[in-house]
Design a protein that fits this description.
The chain is of the alpha+beta class. Helices cover 43% and strands 21% of the residues. The protein contains 50 helices and 55 strands. The termini are far apart.
């Protein structure tokens, strides 16, 4: 009886009555032991008898009740039963049969067996449903635990007789990192014989084990945990086992029986031992093997047991007189956890079932020898052997391998027969060893059965060879079984630099035992491995990758492998349609989850891309009669643009501005009037009463109502909307800040404006209530002014931020939208093709890409040859040759040939998607530098509030102690109000003045105004800076990283030199240029374009000859026929002659014109009548060799010299004769050297980072004076390198131009893009240089430094004003007559803001450093670096590459140079002088002038 547990997901339950209905209905089903339904979890856990019920029938039963049911777990879990022994008393009223029937009626009791004497009952039950106490209560009078019943040794009841004698052991386990560790230990130890229960706690790092000490020892448990790779130690020494008298009796009985049988066995003739081979299914790991071996070898009738996990077999040597084959089979099936399926191979009698030839006197030895050698034979087919030496080398190498007994290799049969020990090696190991020797090897389908040799005697071996038929075990069955057990894991791989790393990992891991397939994604740094869990596990796979020299960690809970599909489904009418779609899809193999919404017509499906693809799912739904289409994702990356914020701050600014202008006008008018009144008072000796009358007679001071003047009323009306609408966002932000117990500028702004507004409002009401003659002083002008300045700053900030998101939209637009999927027949014949959406491409699809098309997904070429423009990814302008087996990248452009590719990475796994993700992460993860002002106001806010409160209470106290002071200095004091009221009003006025004057207005303006002016000045000078953050950050930069192509160099190849070879049969220079230019005019390759451009320029002609039979071989060169060259040269000579004639005419005017025209007539006479046809070849060495041309050694040397200097050397041949060598290179920008020198003189470290090869990188670096180079770097590694520099505590500026630079530009503290670069790079960068001038990099850093200096000056202005203004407002200087009226506070506030703005405006005078001045300063100090000073690193590795060995003379020159140069070069290059020797043809002696040669 096999009891299992299954979880079924139940949808549609609404209340507890549903739960009860299901439990009652399903609980009655025959074979169901228990059911527990949970309304919250929406599931049912059912324990059932697997022989009577299946998960499908139980799911169907729930389904029939009207609920939706789905299997939560496809594999039911086995439930291990417990056993209890009951003693039946002799005086019991019930018979053993009655007791058995009573017990079996109860749920949870599986079986009841009674002993032959009817005194003992063995009850098997499920402990989760029922326990021992309940069982005893069911049958009155029975008792627990009696002497063990007599059972035949070898039957399955042996193991369960001792329940009482168990011991608890506590162990400390170190080295566990996650829950998979705990389940590993629990799984491994739980399977050992004698272990009853184990619980491992990750938090406490301990294991609690309940075990039976007569079956296993504590030391053995500890050893097994250590074998699993963890450290184990005893927390408490295990207590010695205390055995009761009954237990001792039992043990004695068993031992006595055992020894008796052995004696009997020894006394008999032992020559009748037999060997049997069983097939065992259900073993998962070595602990199963150990379990079976230890249990079966303990049987007295068994002499030896060898169990093999790989072959799923057990070879048992036994005595047929004592035990039968059937009992042996049942004994193995009864081994815990009782899940093994044991069967006999067909015709086992004829296989190795033979009597051993052991003489009687040696029987004791034979019994002891439990580990007898086991031999298996495998036939491996070997292709690629040519002669007997191949045979001998294979036999020699393989015979030395551990476990190989013999090997015979047959040359005519192309195979090898190997006899080996399966415990030491495996067929797969042997096969890969032969493959490693360079032969193709595969295991033939008919692998022989194992041969057991108890005594290794030659007779037996011969006999076994004769009787061995091929195995009849169906290989298909094994393959199916394996497919079921394939698991998938993801491993994070670090340290990969290029496609060869990927190939290395994939090639090596495919050879390993148990690995089904592996797919490595370079950009994502991730490997997806499908493996057989019976043979290997994820951490072992990670270890294999680490052995190859890469970093590898297993990714826990990685469900990235699941595909997610969003579909729009049309044609659904009601809930039954939804149910129909969901139930059909959930029954489809590979669909993990499905949810369909009727209201939105959308379906959300999760699937396993290994089993099913999106097109299959769409077809399934369409098959049900619905129309489906893909839910198109938004390709515009709108999720991070700042349009909403920009709108809200612009609205806030405009609202505040509209109301602020009149308020400011009123305030200025009042200030002027007050100052005039003060003058009148001083000069005309007007009395206070006259002053008061004059003041109140002004229009604005007229009272509409008693106590309410026109001025206050208008100010109030203008202030309310600002406070309500303009300040709305400030109030929200301030509330959020206070909620999180922080204080920022918003809090201070809200505090100042609210208190000013409320105080003014209250004071107005009081004045109106009192019908005051004198109008109170209000602060209604404060909120509008404040909100205007702040909201303007915020608006401008968000406008700048919004620009960055456009980069992602551009990147996403590079992705192809459609793909052409083709179906191939045998021999790759095209059967059909269809256009599908790129999201519907599945892994493994064959995709056709036509010339000029974009690659929709990453893949591998399976047919076709072409050149592909991958500048998108690598940034290098040269197209790359693609032939079958090469990988292609999504988004790159196919140029001239049609390709068929097999998709390897689709959807979010493509390289382009990864770059998009990198840019996105860099933009979102870069924390904005918290503005200095915000930081300051964090302390400033509480401080000012405290000062204001202190001022309030201080004046109340002073007022009550000495009222005269208040009376003297309180302007609005009126005898009609009481002294107490006057004191409180005066104190409030002082505290409000403090809040107003200390308003962070100037602090808020200090940064934005300087940033606005700085960015404006930058724009005038061709430097676009996106907002304040990069402007502030640039001055902190310590390292400047330059990309090479398009940044340091022009990015387009140019002809550097044309060398005419001696064997050119006297072809004139112009004729050769004309032929070469004409030939290349049909080529789209950048090198061809460069040659044509150069020839046109040299010949001063826009048109060239005619080219026919043009043929291009990607990666080699071109061949064609060229005609009409003579006509072209004739035109050229005619032009030269005409020029000569003009010159002659100018010099000798008196000469006869006809005479001077003579030469032209002569040339006319020479005009060719027939055009000659030339055969032209242009290409590399290989192309010339293919066409039968020999490249001489001096020409080869010249080519090597050019290549060493980072150039591409191309040969040209006309009519089968080599006639020219053309050197082409990407030239360095003229200002690059000065820019690098200036940056170094500013104290910055300069690094060159490029995807190009190390030779070119070294050459370019030596020309511009950079000493640290990283070559062959991928886009993701550019990001990693920038991150690495940042982790060292350095602020990094990255200067680049290509799409491949965009992730690094976004990651760097400051990304600087060259204006001629790609849109994406420009969008990802923080600073854009409009002109293609590297001196602007210097200027941008210089401007940043000047701006930050200005910001600091602004802060000083603002702080000084606050430090002086606050004490004055608080009335500290009252005794010396310094009183601050509220209007003065407002004026001072305005003055501070104005001073800050004026200070910022001084930046307008900034002049960027001119190249002439810098050149003059650097004169004589700039020089080329020798290669020894340049440390070149491949990828992101820190160790530089060495150069070829030098002659002694070169070394002496080099070392003397290096010692002088060490002052200028960085630490690394000084350290690497000895390692990094310059190239053989060194440029030490300053022969850089050759770079400018164009012809020899």
């Amino acid at each position: 009886m096999e009891v299992k547990s299954i979880v079924i997901v139940v949808e549609g339950m609404t209340c507890n009555s549903c739960v009860q209905t299901i439990e009652q209905h399903v609980g009655k089903i025959n074979g169901v032991h228990n059911i527990k339904v949970s309304l919250e979890k929406k599931n049912a856990v059912i324990i059932y008898d697997s022989k009577l019920q299946t998960p499908g029938t139980l799911q169907e039963a729930i389904h029939d009740m009207g609920f939706d049911a789905a299997l939560g777990d496809s594999n039911p879990q086995p439930v291990l039963p417990d056993t209890i022994f009951l003693t039946i008393p002799t005086q019991s009223t019930l018979t053993s049969k009655q007791i058995r029937s009573i017990l079996l009626k109860n749920k949870g009791i599986l079986d009841v067996k009674t002993s032959s004497d009817h005194k003992t009952a063995v009850v098997t039950f499920i402990s989760s449903i029922i326990n021992g106490k309940q069982i005893i209560q069911m049958v009155p009078g029975v008792d627990v635990s009696t002497p063990a019943p007599e059972v035949t040794p070898g039957t399955c009841e042996d193991a369960s007789w001792s329940q009482a004698s168990s011991v608890v052991l506590r162990l400390k386990v170190e080295g566990m990192s996650c829950h998979s560790c705990t389940s590993t230990i629990e799984g491994k130890i739980g399977k050992l014989q004698g272990i009853q229960r184990i619980k491992v706690s990750l938090d406490n790092q301990e294991a609690v084990v309940v075990y039976q000490p007569h079956l296993i020892t504590a030391e053995e448990i500890k050893h097994q945990i250590e074998a699993a790779g963890f450290m184990a130690s005893f927390k408490k020494q295990p207590r010695p086992l205390k055995l009761s008298a009954i237990d001792l009796e039992r043990l004695k009985n068993v031992q006595a029986k055992g020894s008796e049988t052995i004696l009997k066995e020894n006394s008999k003739n032992a020559n009748d031992t037999k060997t049997i081979v069983f097939r065992i299914d259900g073993m998962h790991c070595n602990s199963c093997v150990l379990n079976i071996q230890s249990t079966i070898s303990a049987l007295p009738s068994v002499t030896s047991v060898v169990v093999s996990l790989e072959n799923k077999s057990a070879i048992i040597n036994y005595n047929p007189n004592l035990i039968s084959i059937d009992v042996l089979r049942k004994a193995i099936e009864a081994v815990s956890p009782e899940t093994f399926k044991v069967s006999l191979p067909d015709e086992y009698e004829n296989v190795a079932l033979f009597t051993t030839l052991t003489p009687p006197q040696k029987s004791a030895v034979a019994l002891k020898d439990a580990s007898q050698p086991l031999t298996q034979v495998v036939v491996i087919n070997i292709e690629g052997m040519t002669c007997d030496s191949c045979v001998q080398s294979i036999e020699g190498v393989i015979s030395r391998k551990a476990g190989v007994k013999s090997i015979h290799v047959s040359l005519p049969n192309h195979n090898g027969t190997i006899e080996y020990d399966p415990l030491q090696t495996s067929p797969e190991d042997l096969r890969s060893s032969i493959e490693d020797m360079g032969f193709d090897a595969y295991i033939s389908a008919k692998t022989e059965l194992p041969v057991v040799v108890t005594r290794p005697s030659p007779e037996v071996q011969l006999e076994s060879h004769g009787t061995e038929p091929p195995s009849k075990v169906s290989l298909l069955h094994v393959a199916k079984h394996e497919m079921k057990t394939i698991s998938k894991c993801y491993i994070q791989v670090t340290g990969m630099t290029c496609a060869s790393c990927v190939a290395n990992i994939e090639r090596n891991l495919r050879r390993e035992d148990g690995i089904h397939s592996i797919l490595v994604a370079l950009m994502a740094g991730k490997a997806e491995v499908r493996y057989n869990p019976a043979i290997t596990h994820p951490s072992a796979i990670a270890e294999l990758i680490r052995e190859l020299g890469f970093g590898a960690t297993v990714m826990e809970n990685c469900d990235e492998g699941d595909g997610i599909l969003e579909l729009i489904v049309r044609g659904m009418t009601c809930a039954s349609c939804v149910h129909k779609i969901e139930s059909t899809l959930m029954k489809t193999n590979g669909v993990l989850y499905c949810s369909v919404a009727l209201a939105t017509n959308k379906a959300h499906i999760k699937y396993d891309p290994e089993i099913i693809g999106p097109r299959d799912i769409i077809q399934t739904i369409q098959g049900l009669g619905f129309t489906t289409s893909l839910d198109k994702k938004d390709r515009s990356a709108s999720h991070i643009d700042h349009k909403q914020e920009i709108r809200q701050w612009r609205r806030s600014f405009l609202v505040s501005l509209i109301f602020c202008i009149p308020v400011m006008g009123l305030m200025i008018y009042m200030m002027i009037m007050d100052s005039q009144l003060a003058d009148a008072h001083a000069h005309h000796n007007m009395s206070a009463e006259e002053m008061e009358d004059l003041h109140s007679s002004m229009f604005l001071e007229r009272q509409l109502l008693p106590g309410l003047s026109v001025m206050n009323f208008v100010s109030f009306l203008l202030c309310v909307p600002v406070q309500m609408f303009g300040g709305w966002h400030f109030y929200i932000q301030a509330y959020k800040a206070l909620k999180h117990k922080t204080a920022n500028m918003d809090v201070l702004i809200v505090l100042a404006t609210s208190i000013a507004f409320l105080y003014s409002f209250v004071i107005l009401l009081v004045a109106m209530a009192e019908k005051a003659k004198v109008n109170p002083v209000t602060f209604f002008d404060t909120p509008p002014m404040l909100f205007v300045f702040i909201s303007l700053g915020r608006w401008l900030e968000h406008v700048a931020k919004g620009k960055t998101s456009e980069a992602l939209a551009r990147l996403i637009s590079l992705q192809a939208t459609e793909a052409t999927i083709v179906t191939l027949g045998p021999d790759n014949i095209l059967l059909s093709e269809e256009q599908v959406d790129v999201e519907l491409v599945q892994r493994g699809d064959i995709v056709k890409v036509i010339p000029g098309g974009k690659f929709p997904v990453d893949g591998r070429v399976i047919e076709g040859h072409s050149m592909v423009d991958e500048s998108l990814i690598t940034g290098e302008a040269m197209p790359v040759t693609k032939k079958p087996g090469n990988t292609v990248i999504a988004g790159s452009i196919n140029q001239n040939g049609s390709l068929l590719i097999s998709a390897t990475h689709v959807g979010a796994d493509t390289t382009l998607s990864q770059i998009v993700k990198l840019v996105e992460e860099a933009q979102t993860s870069k924390a904005p530098i918290q503005q200095f002002a915000d930081k300051l106001s964090g302390y400033f806010v509480p401080f000012i509030v405290a000062v204001s409160v202190v001022t309030l209470f201080a004046w109340i106290i002073i007022g009550f102690v000495d009222f005269e002071i208040v009376e003297k200095y309180f302007l609005g004091y009126n005898k009609s109000i009481s002294a107490a009221e006057a004191i409180i009003r005066f104190a409030f006025q002082a505290s409000i003045t403090v809040l107003c004057i200390a308003c962070p207005c100037s602090l808020g303006l200090a940064t934005p105004t300087a940033v606005m002016v700085g960015t404006g000045v930058g724009a005038q000078n061709g430097i676009l800076i996106k907002g304040g953050e990069p402007l502030e950050m640039a001055h902190k930069v310590k390292v400047v990283v330059f990309d090479k192509t398009g940044t340091i160099t022009h990015g387009t190849p140019e002809v550097m030199q044309v060398k005419f070879l001696g064997e050119s049969n006297g072809i004139p220079r112009n004729k050769m240029l004309a032929m070469v230019g004409t030939a290349e005019s049909n080529s789209e390759h950048p090198l061809g374009v460069a040659i044509t451009k150069y020839c046109k320029k040299e010949l001063d002609s826009e048109t060239l000859g005619t080219c026919t039979d043009f043929q291009v071989v990607p990666g080699c060169g071109i061949s064609c026929k060229v005609t009409n060259i003579e006509a072209l040269l004739y035109q050229k000579n005619k032009m030269i002659e005409e020029n000569n004639i003009k010159n002659v005419t100018l010099v000798k005017i008196e000469e006869n014109t006809e005479e001077s025209m003579q030469p032209a007539l002569i040339i006319d006479a020479e005009l060719p009548t027939t055009s000659q046809k030339y055969s032209v070849l242009i290409g590399n060495r290989e192309w010339m060799n293919r066409n039968g041309l020999v490249v001489k050694s001096e020409v080869d040397k010249a080519m090597i010299e050019h290549e060493r200097r980072g150039r591409t050397a191309v040969l040209a041949a006309v009519d089968g004769v080599l006639c020219g060598l053309i050197a082409i290179a990407d030239t360095v920008k003229p200002e690059a050297e000065l820019a690098v020198y200036t940056l170094k003189s500013m104290g910055l470290e300069v690094v060159l980072m490029t995807g190009d090869n190390s030779k070119t990188a070294r050459s370019i670096a030596s020309q511009v004076g950079i000493t640290k180079v990283f070559a062959e770097v991928l886009p993701s590694h550019k990001v990693a390198k920038v991150k690495q520099l940042q982790d060292e505590g350095k602020r990094v500026a990255m200067v680049g131009d290509g799409i491949n630079d965009s992730p690094a530009l976004a990651m760097a503290n400051v990304g600087i893009a060259i204006g001629t670069g790609t849109d994406v790079a420009i969008e990802a960068a923080d600073v854009v240089l409009i002109r293609d001038d590297l001196m602007d990099v210097v200027a941008s850093i210089d401007l940043s430094r000047k701006t930050v200096k200005r910001i600091r000056i602004n802060f000083v202005f603002a702080l000084i004003y606050n430090l002086i203004g606050v004490p004055v407002a608080a009335g500290v200087f009252l005794p010396i007559g310094l009183v601050l009226q509220p209007w003065m506070g407002s004026a001072a506030m305005a003055a501070s803001s104005v001073s800050v703005v004026l200070s910022s405006l001084l930046l307008k005078m900034y002049q960027k450093p001119s190249s002439e001045k810098l050149e003059f300063r650097a004169r004589g100090q700039i020089r080329h670096k020798s290669p020894s000073e340049i440390s070149v690193h491949i990828g992101i590795d820190e160790t530089g590459t060495g150069s070829p060995k030098l002659s002694l003379m070169d070394r002496i020159i080099n070392y003397s140079r290096a010692s002088i140069n060490s002052l200028f070069s960085d630490k690394r290059s000084v350290n690497s002088i000895v390692l990094n020797e310059p190239d053989k043809h060194s440029l030490l002696v300053g022969d850089f002038g050759e770079d400018d040669d164009t012809a020899l």
